Amino acid sequence: MTDLSVTERVAEVERAIIGRAPEHKIDPSLDRIRMLLDLLGSPETSAPMIQVAGTNGKTSTTRMIDALLREFGLRTGRFTSPHLESITERIVIDGEPLDEAAFVRAFNDIAPYTHLVDARHDHPLSFFEAVVGMAYAAFADAPVDAAVIEVGMGGAWDATNVVDAEVAVLTPIGVDHEAYLGDTPLAIAREKVGIIKPGSVVVTAEQLDDVAALIAERAAEKGATLLQAGRDFEVSYRVAAVGGQVLTIDTPHGRYPDLFMPLYGAHQSQNAALALVAVEALVGAGQALGTDVVTEAFAQVSSPGRLEVVRRSPTIVLDAAHNPHGATAAAAALEDSFNFSPLIGVVGVMKDKDYEGLLAAFEPRFAHVVCTQNSTPRALPAAFLAEVARGIFGVDRVSVSPNLVDAIDAATTLAEAGGVFGEGIGSGGVLVTGSVVTVGEARRLLRRREPAAGLDDPGV
To answer: Do 38 and 167 touch, CB atoms closer than 8 A?
Structure first.
């Protein structure tokens, strides 16, 4: 079998999966995924699990947990969604996404059973349920020693939530997916706390007061141990550094000083604290972890598409912020870690998101915004986004370029011509943001156009 034939088969698999109900179309039931996993021999029970839910920071926190577990010598499984460039990114074993042949095998393992499940239910298995089934089956087949699972949407009815995870992690909870989960943080939190299982350990970020009270109530109901940021653990020291940041984390079992992490923003330091406490809960047995191991793990962690520098001269940064909370964190991180003057935004969003709130969060940082759109049917038309942006930025600070390639080219031209904004020439930067899909398409484009050498200049 040639590489091309394997690639073609992956494309066929992806078409078969995508032909099912999309992951943003949910039918609140775990019956289908449970039946599929029962037919597969209950692979979701094959290893200890950490499950990660929340509104923002889930993917980064999941990747940090994975890095820590692997540094302790464990063979790990990792499931995240959505993907940036390739669907194979969603299922990772021992730090590496399934290669194309393994991805095809994982699909073939579940395919005969998907039709049985479809025939027994009014609604067939969705795209997301099929991929979740593939992930759990691949983890059992590997086999892995432990797995970390990012919730797709919500919590209680999410297809990942068939596991009895030993540790539940709750990143900051805000408003997103309003059409499916509710329009207040508390309403959304009611779905998120569904991942808390009897006797588990719950590790939560600092939350709004009513959300924190709900989490504490649910933990008590389930007999779970609750560890809260700001009360039981904290980032006690943090400073931006070239290529990332240095932080000290105090946990229930010890202090981890002077940890270098090659990610930007205070929000990533909070994610790191969640990850560290979660791993302490799973493998620490009531003791602090080895500082050298933690130091090494954090030094190697990555989170593609999250304030990721992919090009320089001018510097282009990608960030998958797609709601006001994420945009606020990204804007603060840009202020904290970069000296762009001017900063040009390239923004493409989905129709069902709070794009007005996202634009408002970036307004103080962007000298100019280029409104664009990604290639999916869910994309908000660039012209409509521009009309909204003009009401926030003013007419002179907004331009429209529906084609993402043209939008990035226009933004880099503006960033290089800093004098247009009365700022220094050559010190400008570009941020591509607004959607995971937009960032993924930009990442694929820029990594193809730009040679790999020299792309690690953070522009700090």
So the answer is: no
Considering only the top CATH level, what class is 3-300?
Answer: alpha beta
What span, in angstroms and rounded, lies between the C-alpha atoms of 457 and 440? 20
Task: Please state the φ and ψ torsions of residue 14, each to the nearest 5 degrees.
Answer: -60, -40
What pTM value is reported for the model?
0.92
Closest CA to 192 of 210, 168, 221, 217: 168
Distance CA(288)–CA(255), nearest Å, equals 8
Question: Which pLDDT tens digit goes with each residue over 266-299?
Answer: 999 999 999 999 999 999 877 889 999 999 999 9
What is 306-449's CATH number, 3.40.50.880, 3.20.20.70, 3.90.190.20, 1.20.1250.20? 3.90.190.20
Report d(CA 279, CA 241) in Å as an integer: 25
Whose structure tokens read 């990610």? Answer: 263
Q: Write down the mean pLDDT value for the chain.
A: 91
Query: Is-contact 280 252, C-beta < 8 A?
Result: yes
| DSSP state, residue 20 | S
Enumerate the domain spans of the chain: 3-300, 306-449
Q: Report how far residue 136's alpha carbon sits from residue 163's, in angstroms, rounded to the nearest whole number.
A: 10
- The whole-angstrom separation of Cα 276 and Cα 82 is 23
Q: Is residue 169 classed exposed, middle or buried when 0-12, 13-18 and 19+ CB atoms within 10 A define those classes?
A: buried
Most confident listed range (80-84, 102-106, 225-229): 225-229
pLDDT > 50? residue 453: no
Tens digit of pLDDT for each residue in 397-446? 999 999 999 999 999 999 998 756 655 545 899 999 999 999 999 999 99
Find all residues with CB under 8 Å of 247, minimum gap 6, and list them.
Answer: 235, 237, 238, 239, 259, 261, 269, 272
Confidence grade of residue 455 (pLDDT, cut at 50, 70, 90): very low
Check pLDDT > 90 for residue 313.
no
Q: How far apart are CA 416 and CA 53, in angstroms?
A: 40
Mean pLDDT of 307-329: 94
Helix%, strand%, coil% for the chain, nearest 5: 45, 20, 35
How many Cα atoms are found within 13 Å in the side-chain-facing hemisphere of 85?
Answer: 10
CA–CA distance, 419 with 416 (Å, rounded to integer): 9
Distance of CA 90 to the CA centre of its chain: 11
